Amino acid sequence: MTVLEAIQKSTEFLTKKGVESPRLQTELLLAHLLKLPRMKLYLNFERALSPTETNALREFVKRRGQREPLQHITGSTSFCGHEIAVSRHALIPRPETELLAELGWKFLVTRHSSLVTALDFGTGTGCIAIAIAAKCPEAKITALDISSETLALAKLNALQNQVAEQIDFLLGNGFGALTAGTQFDLIVSNPPYIASAEIETLEPEVKDFDPRGALDGGADGLVFYRRLAAEAKPYLKADGKIMLEFGDGQADAIKRIFENEKWIVEAVQDDYSQRARILIAHK
Ligand SMILES: C[S@@+](CC[C@H](N)C(=O)[O-])C[C@H]1O[C@@H](n2cnc3c(N)ncnc32)[C@H](O)[C@@H]1O
Predict the structure, then answer these.
(1) Structure pTM?
(2) Regarding the domain delimited by 3-66, which CATH topology (the fold level of the hierarchy) does it fall under?
(3) 146, 224, 245: which to mutate for ligand 1, most atoms within 8 A of CB?
(4) Ligand 1 within 6 A of 146 CB?
């Protein structure tokens, strides 16, 4: 079978399985398998696949047809230019979260202090903490998560991205895990924000593969925002900022939650698809 034939056959299979962008997904799997940039496939359409390559591709495409996310099959994803390993223990980093990391490091670099600190509440793969650490070499970041398996993955990612020395990994349930009196320049979080009953309606790639603890935001999806609004202030410096990602349609409710707890909401920022996505507030 040639590269072109493999692309056509696999695309047809993934289309039948209801996978979005089946041709792109096929090309990404094949490029990963052949260790080629995707565009190079186009220069190799007539190349014959070896039996080993054919079998490996068949296995990859079968898994993708069962709606396993591409990133779990390839083992990693890119976040702010960093390669981040993924597994069943953590949410796959989403492109819109790159904006949160960017707003975080842009704020920290304005701090002109020899020691700036940030808390990444619910660090998952560690993607936000790693991106901020890499852009602010003077920053110390606490990466908090409730799951030890998740935290182990975040540590591995920090090591592989050469920023482990800047990050303290903390296992615990919310702010209770922190030493009393600790205060950060920045608290950043992409907390679980899907309403519990909505999880079952999500695409199989999400509901069957992202950990439930990374998705479930309680009955109305807003449990973590109430908790952050009520509990974060003592952990934030007087001129520090909190930056939080949230889901579609949640902006007004979250703004209200923060204002009711006497936060000053500075901005609700759109993502690159013009959807309100990030709340920025201070004490
Ligand atoms: C939506 S994921 C975000 C992961 C990562 N920050 C990202 O943006 O890709 C939320 C994370 O919060 C963690 N988490 C959930 N409840 C928590 C709690 N009570 N305390 C600390 N972390 C928690 C989950 O384990 C999960 O890793």
Answers:
(1) 0.96
(2) Helicase, Ruva Protein; domain 3 (1.10.8)
(3) 146
(4) yes
